Amino acid sequence: MIIKLDGSLYTVVEFGENKTARAAAKVWAKLKGVDNSRSIEKTWNSGDTIFPVRVERKAYQYLYKDDTGYNFMDNETFEQIALQEHLIDAPQFLKEGQEVSVLINTESEQPMSVELPDKIVVTVTYSEPGVKGDTATRTLKPATVETGATVHVPLFVNEGELIRINTKTGEYVERVK
């Protein structure tokens, strides 16, 4: 959910309710700025009004990066838009031709952010060879993937293999066969 608060747009990261026997219930939320990079916590009394913003999620395809920014194409109308890097959740994991979700504010028809799928499959382009026998603990080594990002992977992952990465945390999930 995205809400308007003090003239800025925030997405709700986490929320909860505090009830006490003597006082009225309060609702709290951790908010992350959509149009700014701030993270705040806000508490409302019961009965306070919040102003949700209607957001539409559309499927776009990543095309390329140039001087204007990252270029995406609408999968339905084939219209192209260029967005700046700060609007993209994990730009280091973007691959050409990859499908992403673009959140669009329905009031102003402006793109607000770009979300990659939770997990993506990439090819390891460079990795140091692992040392056999050093597997008593979960030892990780750096590996470069096809998008240019560096990910820490287990010792058994080698160059040319497909791996699944969590785009939210940037961590290795599993090897894909």
UniProtKB/TrEMBL annotation:
Pfam families: EFP, EFP_N, Elong-fact-P_C
GO cellular component: cytosol
Pathway in which the depicted protein is active: Protein biosynthesis; polypeptide chain elongation
InterPro entries from the UniProt entry: Elong-fact-P_C (IPR015365), NA-bd_OB-fold (IPR012340), Rib_uL2_dom2 (IPR014722), Transl_elong_fac_P/YeiP (IPR020599), Transl_elong_KOW-like (IPR013185), Transl_elong_P/YeiP_cen (IPR001059), Transl_elong_P/YeiP_CS (IPR013852), Transl_elongation_fac_P (IPR011768)
Xref: CDD domains: S1_EF-P_repeat_1 (cd04470), S1_EF-P_repeat_2 (cd05794)
Top-level taxon: Bacteria
Subcellular compartments: Cytoplasm
Biological process according to GO: peptide biosynthetic process
Domain Translation elongation factor P/YeiP central, residue spans: 57-112
Residues of the Elongation factor P C-terminal domain: 120-175
UniProt KW keywords: Cytoplasm, Elongation factor, Protein biosynthesis
Principal subcellular localisation of the protein: cytoplasm
GO MF annotations, alphabetized: translation elongation factor activity
Entries under PANTHER family matching the protein: ELONGATION FACTOR P, ELONGATION FACTOR P (EF-P) FAMILY PROTEIN
Family assignment from sequence similarity: Belongs to the elongation factor P family.
Role: Involved in peptide bond synthesis. Stimulates efficient translation and peptide-bond synthesis on native or reconstituted 70S ribosomes in vitro. Probably functions indirectly by altering the affinity of the ribosome for aminoacyl-tRNA, thus increasing their reactivity as acceptors for peptidyl transferase.
Name recorded for this polypeptide: Elongation factor P
Lineage, broadest ranks: Bacteria, Pseudomonadati, Bacteroidota, Chitinophagia, Chitinophagales
Name of the gene this protein is made from: efp
